[in-house]
Amino acid sequence: MDDIAAARAVHVLAVLFWIGGVAFVTLVVMPAILREHPPGERLAAFHRIERGFAPQARLWVLLAGVSGFWMTHRAGLWDRFVDPGFWWMHAMVGLWAVFMAMLFVIEPLFLHRHFRAAPDPEALFDRMIRMHRLLLAIAVVTVLSATAGSHGLI
Q1: Residues 2-51: tens digit of each pLDDT
Q2: What is the chain written as a DSSP string?
Q3: What is the pTM (predicted TM-score) of this model?
Q4: Of these four, 14, 84, 127, 140, which has the most CB atoms within 10 Å of its CB?
């Protein structure tokens, strides 16, 4: 297997676990927390679960970025970023950048402190649900568009 094919395999696997994890948290974990925990306990319940998932999410997002960069570099695809027809390349990089910032900068440096000091944990949990839904919707559009675009459908 050549290095671009290997990078593509790693990239697909990383995106599968990354976006699949976002979908699982958004569509399964958060609704279960809403059903199973009273309002005052929801944020703490989410953090107990998130502690096990966050390191995995960081790994998959990092691997998606490294493999995507490698494929772009090795295949000489940088010119796609100046062609509006490849807008989905920008979408992939933009989505990746948002998650990199959230997982490696914003969450560890700011959000955990904010969560501990939140005057209304239930309102914060509701805001987190809305943010997860928005990010999942953007991720679904990005994955569908990137898959279609990389196969010449758009």
Answers
A1: 999 999 999 999 999 999 999 999 999 999 999 999 998 999 899 899 88
A2: --HHHHHHHHHHHHHHHHHHHHHHIIIIIHHHHHHHS-GGGHHHHHHHHHHHHHHHHHHHHHHHHHHHHHHHHHTT-GGGGG-GGGHHHHHHHHHHHHHHHIIIIIIIIIIHHHHHT-S-HHHHHHHHHHHHHHHHHHHHHHHHHHHHHHTT--
A3: 0.91
A4: 14
Rounded Cα gap, residues 58 and 56, in angstroms: 5
Centroid of chain to Cα 63: 12
What residue has token string 């939140």? 118
Read off the amino acid at residue 154: I
